[in-house]
C-alpha cells in the first residue's frame, strides 16, 4: 500500500479549543508545560475572560443529566471520603417500558449528595453536547485521545484521596470554589499500566509533604496537570463542580510497541528457546538474551516508518471519535445528491489517501483510510478526492471528474459512509 502525497489531512497542532484553556501561546505551552510542568490559569487571563468557559457545563445541566437523560452506569460514579459508593445504592429500574436495572435514580442521588457524596459524571464527551463538540475539536487539535468527566462536590466535602492520573488533565472549575493541593510526581510520566494504586506508600509519603501548589479555583479558572502529578481537591462553602479533560497521551513507549510488533517478521526472533530452558535462571538466558538483543537491534534499525505509522494509525485513530452525525438527515442528503449539493468533511474525522493494489485489467484503486476501516474507490476519483480533502468541502458539480455523474456517485457514497456531511445551510 502506497500513501499518496496529496490530499492528506493532518490534525491541527493548535486551534480554538486548546487556546480557550491557555493564558499563553500554544507554542509556549508545548515547550514549557506539555507533559512537564503544571500550569494555573485564572479566568481573567484566558481568551474568553470570566465566563468564557461557562457554556461547557453548569449545575442545571448536571441536574438534567442525572434526572431526565436515562443515564446509566458507568456514566456515573458516586464517592465519599475517598471511597466509591456501591452502584446498587443509587441505581434501579426506569419503570414501565424502561426496565433496565442500572439506571440512575435521582431520588437516591439526592440523599447521597445531601449526605456529602461526590457525583462523578463520566464520559461527558459522549453524553453532553457542548462537551462532545469541545472534546472532539480538542482531540483533533492535540492529536491525542480525549475524555471528559465532571466532579460535583457538596460543600466542605472531599471526593478522592491524593492520587495521580495516568493521563494529562485540564481541570476547569465551572461552579463554586474548590481548594486544590498539587504535588510533584513519585513516578514521572507514568504509563497506563502504572497506576497510583501500585505506589500507595510513596503517594502517601509525598502527600504528607508541603504541596507544590495550593490554590482555590473559582469558576472559569483552569489548572493543567501532567500525568503523574499528585492532586486532591476539597469543596469550600458551597456546591462545587469542575470538569476534568483527560488527555490520553500517545507515548514513545507506544511507538516502541509498534516497532516491536514489526519485529515479528524476523525469523531469528521467532525461534524457540532451548529445550528444557529455565526462564527464571539468568545464566541460562544469558546467551539467548545476547542473540535476541543483536537480532532485535538489527530489525529495529531497518524498521519501515510507513509500516510503523500504519500500526499506530490502526491502534490510536479509533480512540478519538469524529464529530457526531445526523443519520436521518444524512440519509436524506445522500438520496438527493445533485450538481448543486454542497458537502464538507465530517468534523475531526481522521482520513488519509492511499493507493491500493492494481489488478491485471484495472488501475490501482484509491483507498480512503479511516479510523476503523478503509474504503476502496475507483482510480478515476483520485483527483476529486484530493481536492475534497485539501479544501475541506466541495460543490458536487465543481469536483474535477471526467463524467459529471461520477461526482454524484462519489459524494453519495461518502455521505452514506459518513465521510462528508451536508454543508451548513444546505437542505437535502
CATH T-level fold name of the largest domain: Jelly Rolls
Separate helix tally? 14
Stretches with pLDDT under 50, minimum 5 residues: 1-14
Mean pLDDT: 92
CATH C-level name of the largest domain: Mainly Beta
Q: What is the CATH architecture term of the largest domain?
A: Sandwich
Oligomeric nature of the chains: single chain
Strand order across the largest sheet: 2-12-9-14-8-7-3-4
Let me know the CATH homologous superfamily of the largest domain: Cupin
- The count of DSSP E runs of length 2 or more, i.e. the number of strands, is 20
Helix content: 25-40%
How would you characterize the largest beta sheet? Answer: 8 strands, antiparallel
Rg calculated over all Cα atoms: 26 Å
Number of domains: 3
β-strand amount: 15-25%
Q: Quick one: overall form?
A: globular
Structural class: alpha+beta
**First and last CA, distance:** 36 Å
Amino acid at each position: 500500500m502506497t500513501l499518496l502525497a496529496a490530499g492528506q489531512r493532518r490534525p491541527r497542532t493548535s486551534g480554538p479549543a486548546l487556546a480557550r484553556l491557555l493564558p499563553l501561546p500554544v507554542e509556549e505551552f508545548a515547550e514549557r508545560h506539555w507533559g512537564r510542568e503544571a500550569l494555573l490559569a485564572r479566568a481573567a487571563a484566558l481568551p474568553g475572560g470570566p465566563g468564557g468557559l461557562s457554556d461547557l457545563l453548569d449545575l442545571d445541566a448536571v441536574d438534567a443529566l442525572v434526572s431526565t437523560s436515562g443515564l446509566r452506569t458507568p456514566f456515573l460514579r458516586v464517592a465519599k471520603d475517598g471511597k466509591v459508593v456501591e452502584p446498587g445504592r443509587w441505581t434501579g429500574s426506569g419503570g414501565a417500558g424502561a426496565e433496565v436495572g442500572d439506571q440512575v435514580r435521582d431520588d437516591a442521588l439526592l440523599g447521597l449528595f445531601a449526605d456529602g457524596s461526590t457525583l462523578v459524571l463520566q464520559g461527558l464527551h459522549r453524553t453532553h453536547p457542548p462537551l462532545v463538540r469541545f472534546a472532539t475539536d480538542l482531540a483533533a487539535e492535540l492529536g491525542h485521545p480525549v475524555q471528559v468527566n465532571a466532579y460535583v462536590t457538596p460543600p466542605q466535602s472531599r471526593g478522592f484521596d491524593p492520587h495521580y492520573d495516568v493521563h494529562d488533565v485540564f481541570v476547569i472549575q465551572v461552579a463554586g470554589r474548590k481548594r486544590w493541593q498539587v504535588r510533584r510526581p513519585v513516578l514521572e510520566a507514568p504509563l497506563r499500566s502504572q497506576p497510583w494504586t501500585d505506589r500507595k506508600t510513596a503517594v502517601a509519603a509525598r502527600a504528607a509533604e508541603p504541596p507544590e501548589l495550593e490554590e482555590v479555583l473559582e469558576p472559569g479558572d483552569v489548572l493543567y496537570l501532567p500525568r503523574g502529578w499528585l492532586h486532591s481537591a476539597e469543596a469550600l462553602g458551597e456546591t462545587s463542580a469542575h470538569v476534568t479533560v483527560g488527555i490520553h497521551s500517545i507515548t514513545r513507549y507506544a511507538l516502541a510497541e509498534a516497532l516491536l510488533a514489526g519485529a515479528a517478521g524476523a525469523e531469528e526472533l521467532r525461534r524457540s528457546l532451548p529445550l528444557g530452558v529455565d526462564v527464571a535462571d539468568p545464566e541460562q538466558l544469558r546467551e539467548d538474551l545476547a542473540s535476541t538483543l543483536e537480532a532485535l537491534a538489527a530489525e529495529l534499525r531497518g524498521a519501515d516508518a510507513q509500516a510503523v505509522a500504519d500500526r499506530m494509525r490502526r491502534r490510536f485513530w479509533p480512540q478519538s471519535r469524529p464529530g457526531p452525525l445526523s443519520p436521518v438527515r444524512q440519509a436524506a442528503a445522500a438520496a438527493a445528491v445533485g450538481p448543486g449539493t454542497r458537502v464538507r468533511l465530517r468534523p475531526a474525522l481522521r482520513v488519509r489517501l492511499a493507493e491500493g493494489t492494481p489488478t491485471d485489467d484495472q488501475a490501482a484503486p484509491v483507498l480512503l483510510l479511516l479510523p476503523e476501516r478503509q474504503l476502496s474507490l475507483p482510480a478515476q476519483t483520485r483527483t476529486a478526492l484530493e481536492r475534497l480533502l485539501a479544501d475541506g468541502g466541495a460543490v458536487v458539480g465543481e469536483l474535477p471528474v471526467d463524467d459529471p455523474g461520477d461526482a454524484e456517485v462519489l459524494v453519495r457514497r461518502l455521505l452514506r459512509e459518513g465521510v462528508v456531511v451536508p454543508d451548513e445551510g444546505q437542505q437535502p
